[in-house]
Amino acid sequence: MARADGVYESLRSRILSGEHAPGSRLPEEALSEALGVSRTPVRSALHRLADEGLVTLEPRRGAFVAEFTRADVDEVFELRGLLERRAAARAAVHRSADHVARLSELVEEMSALAAQEGSSRLDDLHHNNRDFHELVLAAAESPRQFRITTALARTSLTPGSFFDYEDEDIDRSVQFHRMISRAVADGQAELAGDLMAAHIGMAHRSFVERRFAAP
């Protein structure tokens, strides 16, 4: 991974995990020192994140983590549930042998990560989860939906739900991914769609409970 991409991924994970809270300032100099890089890749990463809607750039003030309301989050999860239900159902019809094999690999990888400990565990789970959902979208053979849904997910805080998860939540996600993978492999379109919608719905509830809990 190129250094610029590594800085971008690192900053993105910090934002999604809540390490940099919504509304907080992202000073280039401090980030450069923390990441051990020059300000150039940090500046590039901040502009990429701004394009995705995760960061706001204000003249003469600098970069800030974008703020999302409960209504924003509810809307994104609702749209993801509708779109990814359709994608999972289509994937069960249009999937290839390679899609099926890779989905199974990702499920087993997630299961292994769930049993591990370490500082990178949640970040690794986050990337595994993203790869699984994007592979289901790819298997649906609907390029327009792939673009719309991945853009929707990547321009909100919702992909960061894994950073809030406890072991019980992670185990549940592993089981959902396993069932979705099997339904897709078996060509069970309605079941695959229903499972995906339920999976997104559970992630929505968990995210809201943790990120918008009463003080």
From TrEMBL:
<keyword id="KW-0804">Transcription</keyword>
<dbReference type="InterPro" id="IPR036388">
    <property type="entry name" value="WH-like_DNA-bd_sf"/>
</dbReference>
<feature type="domain" description="HTH gntR-type">
    <location>
        <begin position="1"/>
        <end position="68"/>
    </location>
</feature>
<keyword id="KW-0805">Transcription regulation</keyword>
<dbReference type="InterPro" id="IPR000524">
    <property type="entry name" value="Tscrpt_reg_HTH_GntR"/>
</dbReference>
<keyword id="KW-0238">DNA-binding</keyword>
<dbReference type="Pfam" id="PF07729">
    <property type="entry name" value="FCD"/>
</dbReference>
<dbReference type="InterPro" id="IPR036390">
    <property type="entry name" value="WH_DNA-bd_sf"/>
</dbReference>
<protein>
    <submittedName>
        <fullName>GntR family transcriptional regulator</fullName>
    </submittedName>
</protein>
<dbReference type="Pfam" id="PF00392">
    <property type="entry name" value="GntR"/>
</dbReference>
<dbReference type="InterPro" id="IPR011711">
    <property type="entry name" value="GntR_C"/>
</dbReference>
<dbReference type="InterPro" id="IPR008920">
    <property type="entry name" value="TF_FadR/GntR_C"/>
</dbReference>
